[in-house]
Amino acid sequence: MHSTLQIRSMSTCRNGAGQNQGFTLIELIAVIAIMALILGVAVTSMVGIRNGSEMRSAVTTVRSSLSLARQYSVLNREKVYFSILSEQVYVISNCVVGVTNGILGATNSLPPGIKFTTSPFLVTFNPNGGADSAITCPITLHEVTEKAGNTKDVTITVYGLTGLTKTPEMF
What is the domain count for the chain? Predict the structure, then answer.
């Protein structure tokens, strides 16, 4: 009539010999060792991803700032200056740096570990959209990673005639 369902927990299951089933200490140690190995590989790969992303972010931010300076120059029909003040600080202004009321935006800084190789440096954008430099104007960002001797340079090129910027395809 009524069938009864017997539910047994893992601790009450018995094998043929009548002993409790479970994991041996060696099996547990092997699983923990494998998990530690996987975690170690994951952490080291994340460090490499983080280092590369900081350089990409810095290059993107500097290119955006150069584009903003060029756009402001064209829209307002006045010269705009992109000034690298030190290894990590740059500013956009509508007059020569040193005049406090001429700064158009906040003073910007590069992330730690990344610096400009050319400082001080100045790129002037004209109202026609071009830059004052004759042909090209290279701006190089330099990254020093935590490992000694590992460095990476990315050069942003500003073309004099058009004022447009370009970076390498893969950096």
Answer: 1
Range from 1-10, 89-98, 122-131, 137-146 that averages highest in pLDDT? 122-131
Tokens 């430099």: give the residue: 133
6-35 mean pLDDT:
72
Q: 72 lies in which domain range? A: 25-166
Other CB atoms within 10 Å distance of the CB of residue 158? 24
pTM, entire model: 0.65
Say if CB 126 and CB 159 are below 8 A apart: no
Query: What totals of helices (H) and strands (E) does the chain contain, helices first?
Result: 1, 8
**Which whole-number Å values give the CA distances from 28 to 10, 38, 47, 72, in the listed order?**
17, 16, 29, 64
* Non-local CB neighbours of 68 within 8 Å, separated by 6+ positions: 92, 105
